[in-house]
Amino acid sequence: MASEIFKMLMSIEKWAKSADIPASVRTKINKELVKAKVRYENFDPSKMKNTEQKKVYEAVIKKGEKIEKKLNFKKSEIKDEVYSYLRYTNAAYFDFMSALAPLNIGIRFYALTSALFIALSPAFLGAAFSLAFLIPIFLGLNALKKRHTLGYTIAMLITPLSFAVSIMWLRFGYRVLIDYQAVLSETVQTTGKSPQIASFLITVPPVLSLLLLFSAGYMIYQLTRARDMLI
Predict the structure, then answer these.
(1) How far apart are CA 162 and CA 153, in angstroms?
(2) Where are the transmembrane segments (predicted)?
(3) Under 8 Å CB-to-CB from 127, ≥6 apart: which residues?
């Protein structure tokens, strides 16, 4: 027996075929609709035991009922509302399946990548440039926790910069590897620090840059897997 959500999806599909909406919008709606139909065709809500899952299910139903009431009277005006509902429905599926691991892992690696980026980038990009990213980074983290696509967008912005910073530190690390004493002496003269501190400054950041490279790559991998979990 088809679930309530699937029946709502069928109503939306019927609306999408006749609604006077731009082709690009119809394509976006159909893309989300196809994914949702596959996910909910054999979905059985009776198997949900978690209270939070049931609350999400009820919210999906209520939103769907509101949409259904408008389908026959507002052909084109509700296109954005329909698209948002489909995004919400697709995201909710992962709650029902308890399959949010990629998103949770992605959030943790987003935090790690951001911290390493802020710590390692001033040496090459300047402190002001790095600090300018603090607000966007926190906005992105908050957005990911609230499951907004803005978080994914900000993560995509930070990733190439993180790769660039990591590569610059790795190149520096290679120089340290082949001419340690010369780089150490140069760092002591430039910073005025003791040889012990200077040694720390030239050896630890290249190692951390390897972690940054891995962290940024793994973050994007997990968040890309989690894109349909975001609204």
Answers:
(1) 15
(2) 117-138, 150-170, 197-221
(3) none
